[in-house]
Amino acid sequence: MRGMGNMQGMMKQMQKMQKEMAKAQADLELQEFTGTAGGGMVTVKATGKRVITDVVINEEVVDPEDIEMLQDLVLAATNDVLKQIEDTTSQTMGKFTQGLNLPGM
Q: Which phi and psi angles does 45 have, rounded to 5°?
């Protein structure tokens, strides 16, 4: 029954990988990311959990006559920070599925 020993070894490896994935995910959620727009005129900070923690708008960019530009800058900075989180998450978590031909991953 050599196949059973091999199966147990594989299960142990999978459990180890699962623990490592959980730790990597927890570490990502604790990271802080910063997105900017307008050459740093608008800054948005978020956690790896995708929770916005801060929005900073330089007073020079505030023009009551052009609210749309300010809205666009806030949107751009927010999308920038969310993209950074997504890219970092994909890069970090992708290490665990690399080489495994898993459908949907």
A: -110, 145
Number of domains in the chain: 1
For 35, the enclosing helix (H) or strand (E) is strand 32-37
Task: Report in angstroms the alpha-carbon separations of 22 from 19, 35, 49, 60, 88.
Answer: 5, 26, 14, 43, 15
CA distance from start to end of the chain: 33
Write the single-letter amino acid at 39: G
Residues 11-35 pLDDT 10s: 888 888 889 889 988 999 999 999 9
* Host domain of residue 42: 30-83
The pLDDT assigned to 65 comes to: 95
Give yes or no for a contact between 50 and 35, defined as CB atoms under 8 angstroms apart. Answer: no
CATH number at residue 74: 3.30.1310.10
Indicate whether 75 belongs to any domain. Answer: yes
